[in-house]
Amino acid sequence: MKLATFNINGIKARIEALPAWLAAAAPDVVCLQEIKSVDDGFPCEVFEAMGYRVETHGQKGFNGVAILSKFALSDIRRGLPGDDSDEQARWIEAVVEGTRPVRVCGLYLPNGNPAPGPKYDYKLQWMARMEVRVRDLLASEEPFVCLGDYNVIPQTEDAARPNVWVTDALFLPATREAYRRLLNLGLTDAIRARQPGPGVYTFWDYQAGAWERNNGIRIDHLLLSPQAADRLEEAGIDKAVRGGDRPSDHVPVWVRLAS
DNA sequence: ATGTCGAATAGGATTCGA
Hints:
Low-confidence stretches: none
Number of helices: 6
Helix content: 10-25%
Distance between the termini: 6 Å
Structural class: alpha+beta
Number of strands: 14
Shape: globular
Strand order of the largest sheet: 3-4-2-1-14-13
Radius of gyration: 17 Å
Oligomer: single chain
């Protein structure tokens, strides 16, 4: 089973590039971030015609996540637990009913800039809520994958120019500490496990010729539960997508799990 | 002091978020 994450930065803007990548890469499941659409505005029919079921958790203008799956989905949940007042659409999860089921948690972790400030406080609170959800899922001992745009540069080697990120919410010590806490619960960073850095990136800014200069960062991650990591066969980054027509600033990242 | 893009609002240029 091939599972992917892709921050598309707007479904309307990516209505050609996304189906083109799906046709070429043929993932079984894709978690999308920044669909920037309400549920009713998402063009489900485009993806249903390609054999995908579509579940969205959208909001107007910003954020928004979705799951596309060639397999049936069960136990679909929208929103990260832990704060009923949080109205931002950043979390969707479901169990993929393949030959061997796996739960996917698709996430768009808050950017957090500027830091310090209320947006950074929200980021750290969100990460703490995610830790609670992951602890609960680990206790169930079911295989699961938390995949998405984490907006976290885990280590120095995950940025081409780490020095420019030292005061950024994506790289501040408290951000990296919260991310390490997640990993240290027992999750496996699939790209780190299969493609150790440096020079392995998933995002290149639109500005200042970042792509042409390979000034990238690695912020899109797939974290595998122990039972999912046992099934890890392959992990990759579809870097060439960044050089295509009207690209997102992120590229797809994927894993292949046994069965 | 961002070599930019996407969406919303408004009906073009500006603002926000990233």
